[in-house]
Amino acid sequence: DLSDVIGKICPYCQTPIKPDEPVVFCFACNIPHHRQCWDEAQGCTTFGCNGQPTTEPANQHARSTEAIDIDVADIKVRYCSNCGSPINERDVYCSTCGIRLENIVLPRNSRIPARSQSVENNTVPRRRISYLLIVIPIVLILGVLSIHIFYTNDEAATGGKTPRVTKQSEDEIDFIKVKKVIQNEGVSGKFSVYLKDLNSGKEYYTFNKNEPFIAAGLVFIPILIEVLDQAEAGYIDWNSRVRIYEQMLVGGTGLLNQKDVGSSYSIDGLTTLMMRYSDNSCANILIDRVGGLQQINGKMESLGLSNTRLNRRLMDTYAMNQGIENYTSAKDMGRLLEIIVNKNLHELLSKPEKDGMELYLPESCTIYHQIGVLSHTYNDVGIIHGPSSDFILVILSNGVSNDVSKRVIGKIVQTVYEDLER
Questions:
Q1: Contact 314, 177 (CB under 8 A)
Q2: 3-state class (DSSP) for residue 341
Q3: The pTM of the whole model exceeds 0.70
Q4: Burial letters for 101-111: b for 16+ Cβ neighbours within 10 Å, e otherwise?
Q5: How far apart are CA 352 and CA 280, in angstroms?
Q6: Cα(392)–Cα(332) distance, rounded to whole angstroms?
């Protein structure tokens, strides 16, 4: 399907392929390039592809680097309702602005394909309907009884008093109030919460503590840890400078843009922009500087953080549309924040605007945190200092609307803070 070409990012110039542009496919990796970019680079520019240009004689067993020209001028495409860029039929994210394509604009002459007749005429047998009518009420009754028993036992265990956030069990800590905050909101998605009290050293968990969640902008923290370690080992000089080229710039959040092309930034400056302003372009530059995604993944493995893995670069919409994502877990992220605490680098997590965890906290509280956001993914992790409390808090969510997640996260933070302060 040649419509797949439209909107894909050329790996050489980092701009989307438009309907009226000549396209070349690399036979080695099947990644599309602009014809002009292919000719200028004299081959494929995809990292790790056997079709990359080389000055040495080609190995006789190397894969062919020939290419095929494709005319995409006549392909009918859709357009992103956010930025107006062309998108192909199966894309989930816009390759230009990165927004999730939940609302799209179709060309005037296009129409949504009708569902097949076999699907539309498929009906549920009457016997199955009768079975469901019997089973569903039984399940609902059992559910109500279970909830009643849970709350009755809870009140009996606490003498009718409101329980504290935490209750010691045999092997871990159970968040009583935190669970109730989530239950009271009636959300259908998933949450994972990790808390470490820096004064007592105790750890608390609830819900999916070791389950991988989509990391979104939380990937800046693993990148930061690798940059810090290489700087301490002398492999990176904080004052060394990187010249900015147009192909380094990507969409999404951040301050680095076209006006910065030709200028240079120090490693220290790029790191600050990545952390303080969630700059995607700076993150990609730093990934290259430390040796790539595998280098960062190796660092996470050496720290025992098996659920944290970076599988794609920032704003790589080609990979995103293939379902490739970056992952972490609440427990892993808590460990990384503890490293930042031990290095006394809280300030790198300071934010210019009040959002997320800060929503319901008093002015007497100081918070350093990192937010990671995609459609139906809202994560917030932070280091929080109150008048008498110091703690690390990680809250991950998936399958919940961002507005609801933000409200629930704010209430969880407020609940934990008030409990640890009393």
A1: no
A2: helix
A3: no
A4: beeeeeeeeee
A5: 17
A6: 12
